[in-house]
Amino acid sequence: MSNQSLETIELQLAILIRRLTTATADNRNLDRASYLLLRQLSDSGQVGVKTLARELQLDVSTVSRQAAALDQKKLVEKIKDPTDGRAFFYNITHYGQQELEIYRTARLTSIERLLTDWPDEDAESFGRLLKKFNQALRER
Amino acid sequence: MSNQSLETIELQLAILIRRLTTATADNRNLDRASYLLLRQLSDSGQVGVKTLARELQLDVSTVSRQAAALDQKKLVEKIKDPTDGRAFFYNITHYGQQELEIYRTARLTSIERLLTDWPDEDAESFGRLLKKFNQALRER
DNA sequence: CATTTATGATTGTATAATACAACTATAACC
DNA sequence: GGTTATAGTTGTATTATACAATCATAAATG
Description:
The structure is a homodimer. By secondary structure, the first copy, chain A, is mainly alpha-helical. Chain A is 69% helix and 7% strand. Chain A has helices at residues 3-23, 32-44, 49-56, 60-72, 94-114, 120-139; strands at residues 76-80, 88-92. A two-stranded antiparallel ribbon of chain A has the order 1-2. Chain A binds a DNA duplex through helix 1 and helix 4. Chains A, B: Pfam families: MarR. Chains A, B: This is MarR family transcriptional regulator. Chains A, B: Residues 1-135 form the HTH marR-type domain. Chains A, B: Keywords: DNA-binding.
C-alpha cells in the first residue's frame, strides 16, 4: 500500500468522524445512538441488553441506558423473560418501527443529496470499502 | 446511483462513526479533538481561535477550550496580537510538533495494521472517496 | 470625540455518547 | 444451602460539542 494512500485515509478518517459527530447532533427525532440500537432490535429482536451489547460492541451499561431511553419513548417494549428472572427481552413497537423508517429515510435522503453527482461506480466502491473497513475494525 | 449503494453507505457510515468514537477514546496522549487542532496549527500557524474555528468548522467556544488545553500541556503557545488588544495567535511549540508526529505515526501504524491485506487499489480508492465525501460534507 | 455597535475571546451551562466500577437480584453449581 | 456466575441497572467520570451570556477592545457614527 502506498504511503500516500495511508496518509490520506488517516487524515480523512479523522476529519470524517469529527464532521459526522457534529452533523448528526442536530436531529430532534432519533439520536444516532438510538438509531443503531433500534435497527438492531428491528432485525434481531427478542434479545436482552447483554446480547445487544455484544452485537453492537458496546458496554452493557451503555446499551442498558439507551434501551431504557427507547422504552421511555415507547419505541420498544421491555418484556420479562419468563424462563429467567434476571433477564429481559426488548421488542420494537409498531410505533418504533414507523419512527425508524422515518428516520432512516431522512438519513438516506440527506446522504443522497451529498452524492448527487457522484458516478455510480464511486458510490458503489465507497459503500463496499466502508463495509470492508468496518469489518476490519470489528475483527481487530 | 443504485439504492443498494446508498443504503450500504448510510448504514456503514453510522457503524463507522460509532466504532471510531469508541476506538479512539482510549488514548492517553493526544485526544482526537486536539489532534486536528494541532495539525491545523502546525500548518496554518499564527492564527486565533476565530480563524481556527472557521477552518475546522467548529464553534469558537469549542476551539477556545481545546486551544486552552493544548496551551496548558505546552503543546502550543498563546501570543498576544500586538496590533489588536482583543486577539491572540497560537503557535505550535517544538514539543507540540514532536508530540504531533508521535501521535500521527501511531495512528498511521494502527490503520496500516487494519489494511494489511487490502489491495493497493482499494486503499487508494478508499482514501480518495473519503476525501471526496468530506469535501461534499464541507460544502453542504 | 463620545457613544454605540461590532468583534475576538472566554466562560457558564447543557447535552450526547460512552466506559468502568459498584451494586442488586436471580440462577447455576457442587 | 452456600458460593460463584450472570443479567441488568445505577453512580460517576470523561470527551466532544453547541449556544448563550459576558468581557474587553476596536471600529463606526453622528
